[in-house]
Amino acid sequence: MNYFTDAVAWLLDPAHYPGPTGIPTRIGEQLLFTAVTLLLASVIAIPIGFLIGHTGRDRGIAVATSGGLRAIPTLGLLTLVALWIGIGLGAPYVALTVLAIPPILAGAYTGFEAVNRATIDAARAVGMTEWQIVRHVEIPLGLPLLIGGIRSATLQVVATATLAAYIADFGLGRFLFAGLKTNDYAQMLGGSILVILLALVLEGLFAGLQKLVVPRGVAVGRPPVDRKASTRRRPGMESAITKGI
Amino acid sequence: MIEFRSVTKEFPDGTLAVDDFSLTIPSHRTTVLVGSSGSGKTTLLRMINRMVDPTGGTIEIDGVSVASLEPVKLRRSIGYVMQNSGLLPHRTVVDNVATVPLLRGVRRKKARADALDLLDTVGLDRAIADRYPSQLSGGQQQRVGVARGLAVDPNILLMDEPFGAVDPIVRAELQQELIRLQHELGKTVVFVTHDIDEAFLLGDQIAILREGGRIAQLGTPAEILAHPADDFVASFIGADRGKRALHVESQDGSDVLVDADGRPAGVLVGRRSGTGPSDPSGSSDLSSRARSDAALDVTAEGLPL
């Protein structure tokens, strides 16, 4: 109990807010780091995922590769890359991009695969080019699942980004590593609470976004919301995204 | 005119879907390809707009080989209506109908206005223009599908079991609607179905297909009914079960047509008593067919009475 009240007291202490090591700056760094990582991972994973989803080819390789990427321990990879390219933000970016790729890749190709084959066939039969099929049919209809993949990746990255502080003076992880070194458990716990809150806020934003991108014509065709039924309906797909396979 | 010349399609897995198929499909008429699953009928249809490319032989439209045409351009010039409508679920009815004109660069306003006109043409209320496909009944969706097929005013309309997934009452309605439309528009319709009654109702020319796209018989409904080429055709059209073998029984001064099981199929009018539609022209024929159901259609033109 004492630790917790101490942590809250630490969080409420105005002395911890201003300056380049203050809480707002650290949150900003954490968010920036998360955003850049997601961008890097998306640039790599989304085109590949779309290509796999559109052609239906090489799915096995993608599943195996993203499964393999998932199995890499992030801290180990971080250390390895840091030994290779040195101290700084480079290594965390590489390690967390690797962490973020599998869920985004899975979201991209399951999104495309979930589009009714007959719809795509019809689009082709009336004279859409392959690119027009991707742009006008597969992307709008597959977007909710892609956003789901990015949402899952965001959650992992924003939490794991604390590791960046392991080898750089950066982000909310500083509070954890600094606290650990000086046995300042209030600071450690305070830092952890901030990470958790940040993750929850982002999760909430993405949940909203994911609902927002469901095309209206698809949303109106669905039966009234029944959360239990809808999560049970596609268990394979949901778990594929969260597990990144 | 669409011409199949010794067309063969072997799929990569070795399945011979179509083997040496030749057929001439006349313009402004409805040709029905009818057969059970595995007869290659859908494959044949899809070869016309290059959704499938043959592995042998040629297909020509008005003397031009489709193989020499760019697939996307070719498809945009041909209407295509499929089972389960194939509408884009995230676009409204009017946007679905306007899809191809917009791809061809027609201005948005004009495409929309044309699409609304087409809703009238296929017998839909303009009030549904801004609804989404999921908000429509199966029959309405199919009508939208037909409207989309007609959107570029194509000469050729390909229909792949378009009424296969709707209930029998709606199917009958849609069939009558197609007869009316075809009467007005005179497109070259290639229609695929496994339902022989539908084939007899809609087709000017019918090709009954066996497995591998071999033509068991080609002819008008009357020709096929009058002289089934072989046992396969007789069985396929139901002649061997007595469904088509009607005879006349006199009932209070009227001639009643009765099938082999003794069930009345219709009343014979016109040719004997001279009171019915006796105009031999095609249009009267079509309208009388439009009013009659499939069974009466058989009595009206299917029997050598």
Automatic annotation (TrEMBL), chain A:
List membrane-spanning regions: 31-55, 67-87, 93-112, 145-168, 188-209
Q: What is the lineage of its organism?
A: Bacteria, Bacillati, Actinomycetota, Actinomycetes, Micrococcales
Spell out the subcellular localization from the entry.
Answer: Cell membrane; Membrane
Matching CDD domains: TM_PBP2 (cd06261)
InterPro entries to which the protein is assigned, alphabetical: ABC_transp_perm/SBD, MetI-like, MetI-like_sf
Keyword match Transmembrane helix: yes
* Entries under PROSITE patterns matching the protein: ABC_TM1 (PS50928)
Q: How does it sit in the membrane?
A: Multi-pass membrane protein
Give residue ranges for domain ABC transmembrane type-1. 27-206
Alphabetically ordered keywords of this record: Membrane, Transmembrane, Transmembrane helix, Transport
Give the UniProt family note: Belongs to the binding-protein-dependent transport system permease family.
Q: Where is this region: Disordered?
A: 224-245
Tell me what this protein is called.
ABC transporter permease
Species of the source: Cryobacterium algoricola
Q: Output the Pfam families linked to this UniProt entry.
A: BPD_transp_1
Automatic annotation (TrEMBL), chain B:
The ABC transporter domain covers 2-237
What superkingdom heads the lineage?
Bacteria
What start and end residues bound the annotated signal peptide? none
The UniProt record lists the keyword S-adenosyl-L-methionine: no
InterPro entries (UniProt xref)? AAA+_ATPase, ABC_transporter-like_ATP-bd, ABC_transporter-like_CS, P-loop_NTPase
- Where is this chain compositionally biased, Low complexity type? 270-287
* Alphabetized UniProt keyword annotations: ATP-binding, Nucleotide-binding, Transport
> What GO terms are given for molecular function?
ATP binding
Q: Where is this region: Disordered?
A: 267-305
Q: Which family does it belong to?
A: Belongs to the ABC transporter superfamily.
Q: Which PANTHER family does the UniProt entry name for this protein? A: OSMOPROTECTANT IMPORT ATP-BINDING PROTEIN OSMV
Protein's recorded name: ATP-binding cassette domain-containing protein
What is the species of this protein? Cryobacterium algoricola
